[in-house]
Design goal:
CATH class of the largest domain: Alpha Beta
Distance between the termini: 39 Å
CATH topology of the largest domain: Trna Endonuclease, Chain: A, domain 1
CATH architecture of the largest domain: 3-Layer(aba) Sandwich
Shape: globular
Helix content: 25-40%
Number of helices: 6
Length: 192
């Protein structure tokens, strides 16, 4: 098996960041299908976009969780972070004593010369009251192992401030989560 690194996949070139930001700005998925075969797609939520010579170009709006993740990623890109996660399958390998290593999927990863942002994104189509206690606890329990993986990836000379953030959209935090979150977990919450 090929070693993919502790943090993967990452985009850290100017050209790669521009390409990734273009993908993330588009709120639609696009697909071209042979003319005459579009009915199945149209029945499954795709909509007509453009007729080509032998194909039909279709589009479908991305789900709210993906749109929200993309907005958060684009915000960090605009803030000039030079290294960000690529796509939605970014993960960090977590080393565990006496057990097999695991990979933890992370929604947002951003790195500059002084900080690293580790972000979890939660979104809803409608304004919804929701408890995030389980997510907050899992996030807090992984802080140490994730920090160790970051240190191993970048070496001992790089000593960033790691910022742990919950980015939410259309979620009303339960009172215990909103009150306890900053005091006991020392994370940040951002509602977009």
């Amino acid at each position: 098996m090929t070693d993919i690194g502790l943090l993967h996949p990452i985009v850290n070139t100017a050209q790669g960041l521009v390409r990734e930001s273009r993908k993330r700005k588009d709120v639609f998925d696009h697909q071209s299908v042979p003319t005459g075969s579009e009915d199945t797609y149209l029945a499954n939520g795709w909509e007509f976009e453009k007729q080509l010579k032998t194909k039909v170009k279709l589009r479908k709006q991305k789900k709210i969780d993906e749109i929200h993740e993309n907005r958060c990623w684009l915000l960090l890109h605009l803030l000039d972070y030079q290294e960000l996660n690529e796509g939605r399958k970014f993960s960090i390998e977590i080393k565990r004593k006496g057990a097999e290593n695991i990979r933890k999927q992370i929604d947002i990863f951003a790195k500059d010369d002084e900080t690293i942002i580790i972000g979890e994104c939660k979104a809803s189509n409608k304004l919804t009251k929701r408890s995030l206690q389980k997510d907050i606890e899992e996030f807090a329990n992984l802080k140490g192992p994730i920090s160790k993986s970051i240190k191993k990836q970048y070496g001992n000379t790089y000593k960033p401030k790691i910022i742990w953030v919950f980015f939410t959209h259309n979620i009303i935090w339960s009172r215990p989560d909103a009150v306890d979150f900053p005091q006991f977990h020392r994370h940040s919450k951002v509602t977009i």
